[in-house]
Each structure stands twice: as structure tokens, then as C-alpha cells.
Amino acid sequence: MAASIPRTLLAISAGLLTLAACAPGTSAPPASNSAQPTPASVRTDPAAMGKITLTVWDQEVRGGQAAQMKALNTAFQAKYPNITINRVSRSFDDLNTTLRLALSGNEPPDVVQANNGRPQMGAFVKAGQLRPLDPYAKAYGWSERFPQSVLQYVSYSPDGKDFGQGSLYGLPQVGEVVGILYNKDKLTKLGLQPPKTWADFEAALAKAKSGGEVPIQLGNLDKWPGVHVLGTVQGQHVPADQIRALGFGRKGATWNTPENTKTAQQLADWVGKGYFNKGFNGQGYDPSWQAFGKGEGVFLIGGSWLIADLAKTMGAKLGFMLPPGSPPVATGGTGLPFSVTSKSANPDAAAAYIDFITNAEAMKVLAENGLMPVSDTQSQQVAEGPVKDMFTAFGTASQENGLVPYLDYATPTFGDTLGAALQDLLADKKSPQEFLDALEKDYKSFVDSNG
Amino acid sequence: MTGRPPGEPRRAAYLFILPAFLVYALFLLYPIGRAVQLSLYDWDGLSLGTWAGLDNYVEIVADEGLRAAFWHALVLIGFFCVLPLGIGLLLAAILNHSKVRGLGFFRTVVFLPQVVAMVVVAVAWRRVYAPDGTLNDVLSAIGLDGLTRGWLGDYAFALPAVGVIGTWFETGLVTVLLLAGMSRIPGELYEAARLDGAGAVREFFAVTLPAVRGEIAVALTLTVIAALRTFDLVYMTTRGGPGDSTSVPAYEVYSRAFEEGQVGSAAAIGVTITVVIFTISFAINRFADRGSS
């Protein structure tokens, strides 16, 4: 008796197992891929599309982001009363975890905001769940609206294997660029000018150190902030196309080059010279930039997303510049792009919506809400100060094709690998060569399997 | 009605458990079966999975990083179970023995960490451990400047630092469990022990400890499970860093399934954690049962 219950349970669970014993996932990509619309067949007048409800999933939940989205949605629906926007907004993390399931369902949203990198957009393209937007790009003239250095972040080959070129799968609203933030008061006190060359920058670091200041503020507990420092140093030593090939995970690129060794060595040297704050691997990202805001540190290598908050505490003391060099090379990218799903019943309306929230008028709304528009950046009306510095920096970098991708785009696991290896390098647990070997191992195994 | 004893025929009993079993099967057995199935595939969560056999499990044994993650989880058992049990036994014995005034108050205070969400606990401790945090301030104040460091970024101290949070969190639970057990020990036993000339220590080992064997088993089971499935704590404090020195299996499950698109491998790790937890809990309870009979 007592033994038979477990036996029954086993039998039943075994039964459930056999019921479920078919391979997970769907084999055939949705049919829409074969029926590619041509530019001529694309409809671009939303008013003539009839009564439509568009479901849009976005992650614009915070302050200015939420405000611009609301304003643009309202404007769109006012202009085209026949189209209703059903907006579903979730935080970045929530969107990240639910998007996969939503897209593989039978009734996915029409427009989704998906992260640019391979684990998201790349995987969705590979599974045939996003619609290539090339015909719309031609019809709406998107390649004139956006510089190539921006479009690369939303381009994939149709099989999802090649990132950074191929078809267009989405459009972003905002731009991001990693640069050097500096404290003007501290520079003046040290008798320094904002550095014009990399040698100037290194000299300024040495002077800051001997002047008893923290030269570079860094909080690397969360692993990824160091990647931005690495990217910035790399831009000085490694040619931009090589960084691009590495960032996009292309075949033929390698981390084992003298230039990359030089990059890693310079970082290790900076740690040795005490250019970073004490205990930076144990310092959180937020406390770190907040400390910079309170006057701890002369420089901070960080992204444009910090400017709005830091400008509040530092005001005119805050400066922002691209890493020195001409043409400039800076890690950068875009906010999460908006894409059209393959199963959407109204791709024309969805594309019209994406066009509307990324046009010149929309860019103005973004700037008004304190965000950095991805196009027309330099022509926005803003007062002198750090925000203007930032607009100029991004505009320059994107127009002069100086944006290089975030290095963790390279492979699905590269964020973890690079973050951990970089902490090891900065803590002197790995030599520059061991550091590069760790990266190369991950990189190579991905590139080989990616084919 | 037919003169049979209640509950006969035995088969009728199955009918009574059927509704509960259906719910159990639907929400527990089926997902577990599905997870086991997924663990045998190489699947990115989107496109068609390919049969991988036991490859995902082989990887757990072969992959140095994953082995390290399981090792870290074992170290955490020390901090989540062994230490709280030691402290809890001591605290409970003192509280129970001395019949302190305001016992209810102390019990509440010790139990308090359990009430706070782990995420909040982690954020608070992150501040304590920060380079300019409370712990370093205290160390500096008593002249131990040499010991200050970014605790969560230190290769030697990050894992113990995370572990200590677990100790802080679990001690209250263990203490309250043990207190409940000890309060049921009849006073005569202590009296008898004292008459036989036992001191406080002897009394503890001869009377108290054997009497709370069951509670110890419960406490160990709960804390072992907490230790092995630690995710939120690591996610919020170190993200597995510095390097990989605080990576744990549950964090690997998350990052593989949701960030890296390796759902099969994530399922295999999840199944392995389940098996390990089951084995350890089974051993603990076997041990406790044998002692009580």
C-alpha cells in the first residue's frame, strides 16, 4: 500500500512526461518572411488604413521617458483618429523577461521595444519574429534621417547571425554615448584645462593623483561599469573598425592583438598608479557617480545617461567631452529600438507609428523632456552647459562615424565574461594576457558556432 | 453500511486525494517534468530545440565555472545553516534558561530580519559593505584602518561577506524554532539533571540538545534550502563578482535562461539544484527520525 502511492505518482509523472515529449519551440518561422512587401506596396498614409488598434510594448516608464511617450502617443492618435494605441509599458527588466514568451505566442504585440544585442533582437530576428523594415526605410527615407553609425545598431542579416549590417529591424528614439565627465572646479584648482589629447588626459591623471585627488571615480561592483572604461581606453589604441568587428562578434576579429594588449596594460597601469578610487571593485555604480557629484574625483568615464542627474547637483561645474582624438572614437549606441513583429496584422500602421515617434518633430519632444534625441541632436535648442556638451558630443560622434558598439554585444555570454575578467584584471588577479585569453576563448567559441 | 471498516475499500481513498493531486500535478509535477525535459535539449527559448541528451549535465560537471558555483553554494550552507544553528542554540538556551524578562520582545527582535524582504536586506547590507560604508567607518573609528576595504569587491572576503548576510537573516528563524522546542521541555528534567550534579553545560548537552532534535532538523532543512537556492542576495549585492568569486547555481539559472538564451542548460542546473536539495533534506530528516525513535 505505502509503496504503491509513489509508484502511481511515478507512473503519472512518466505519463505527463511522454505527453510533453516533443522538442520545445517552433520550427517554422512565421510565414510573413516569404511575403516581403516591396517599397511600392507599402502604405504610408495611416489615415487611409481604416480602424486599427496597435498594441505597443515599451519600457519608457521613468520620468521624461514616460512623458515623451505619452505626448507622442496622444499626438499620433489625435492626428490619426482611426488608429488606437494600446500601450503596455513595463520596466526594462520586466520587458526583458517577458518579451521572449510574448513573441513566441500567437498574438504578439504589433510594436515591441527590444534590446539591440544578440540575446534579444538577434535571437528574435533569427527566429523570424521581427519584420525587416527595409521597404519602409526606403518609403520614409529613414537612411537620410539616421546616420549609418546609428543604423548599424539595428541592422542584422535575416538569419540573425551578422550584427551591424544587413536589413533594418527597428528604430531607436534616443542616443547614448560614453565619454569623459569632468569636474571643472577641480581642474581649475589643479591648474588644468580639459584634455585635448590622450597624453594630456594621462598627464592630468598624474597631476590629480599628486594633488591628492581621486583621478578617476569608478564603481565597478556591478561588473559592467568597467566595460565603459575599457571601451574608452581601447578607442585610443585600437582602430575603430577592429573594435566594431569585435563588438558585433564578427568572424576574423580577435582580442589577441598588440593593440588590445596595450589597452589592457594601460588599465592595469592605471590601477597600479592609484588612478582609481580605493575599493572600486566593491563600490556600487550609483554611489560612485553620486560621490563624483559630491566632489569626489576629477574625472568619471561614463555615459550620457548620467548627465541629467549629475547636472542637478553639479550645475555648471560639470563638463562632458568625447574621448580626445580626431576622428573621435567613443563607445555608444542607442536606446532600445522599436520593432514590428512578424505576426502583426497591421505592419503598415506599425511602421507609420515608428516613423511618427522618430521623426524630427518627435526629436524635439524628446529634447524637451530632457532626453538625447538620436538624430538632429546638435540642432536642438538647449542652454549652454553639460546637456549642450552632451548633445554636441553625440552629434559629433554619430555624424563622424565615431560610435563603436558596446563590447558586450559580441556574444550572448560576453557581458558576463568581460565583466568578470575585467574585475580580475583591475584587481591584478589576471595579467593583461590572461585577461585577453579569457575574452578570446568566449569570443572564439561563439564565432565558431555562429558560422 | 456494509459493515466494512471506515475507509474501505482502500481504493476509495484515492478518490479523496484526487482533487488535491490534480492541482499538485498540474502546478508542480508537470512543470518539473517539463523542466527535466527541457534540460535534455539545447534550446534558446525561441527557435526549435535540438536534442542534447545529457550534454547539459555533463557541462555542469565539466565546466569549471559551474563547479565553482556549486562549491560556493556549499560554502554558503556553512553561513546559512551551521553558523545560525550554533548561534541559535546558544541564544535560545540562554533565553530559555534564564527566563529573561521581556522574552517576547527579544524573540521579536531576533526574528525581525525574517520579516524584511531579501531584496531590501541586500540593498541595506550593500551600503554597510561599501568602501565608504558603515563597516569601514566603524573599523576606522576603532583604529583598524588597515582592515578597511570594499568588502563586496574583495576576492577573499566577498563570499564570506555575502554569507554573513545569510547568517544574520537565518539566525532569527532558527532561534525562534529552537525556543519553541525548548519551552516544551518539562522543568522536572532540568531539576533531575541538577540533582545529579550537572552544570549548565552538561545540562545543555544531556537534556536540551536531544529534546530539540526535531526542531534542529526543521531548521537545517529550511536553511539548507535557502542557502542552495540563494539568488536574490547575490543578484542584488555582487552579481557573482568580483570575477566569479560569488557565483551561485541559482544565479546561473537566471542569467542563462533570461539573459543568454541557454534555456536547456539553465533547466539542467535547476534540476541539479533540486536533486541536491532533495538529497540533503532527505538525509537530514532521516538522521532526525532515527534519533527520535
From TrEMBL, chain A:
Residues 1-23 form the signal peptide. Gene3D superfamilies: Periplasmic binding protein-like II (3.40.190.10). It comes from the Bacteria. Residues 26-45 are annotated as: Disordered. Keywords: Signal. Residues 29-41 have a biased composition (Polar residues). The keyword Hydrolase does not apply. It holds the Pfam family SBP_bac_1. PROSITE patterns: PROKAR_LIPOPROTEIN (PS51257). It comes from Nonomuraea longicatena. This is Extracellular solute-binding protein.
From TrEMBL, chain B:
Coiled coil: none annotated. It is a multi-pass membrane protein. It holds the Pfam family BPD_transp_1. The chain crosses the membrane at residues 12-33, 69-93, 105-125, 157-183, 204-228, 263-284. Residues 70-284 form the ABC transmembrane type-1 domain. It is found in: Cell membrane. The keyword Transport applies. Keywords: Cell membrane, Membrane, Transmembrane, Transmembrane helix, Transport. The keyword Transmembrane applies. Belongs to the binding-protein-dependent transport system permease family. This is Sugar ABC transporter permease. It comes from Nonomuraea longicatena.
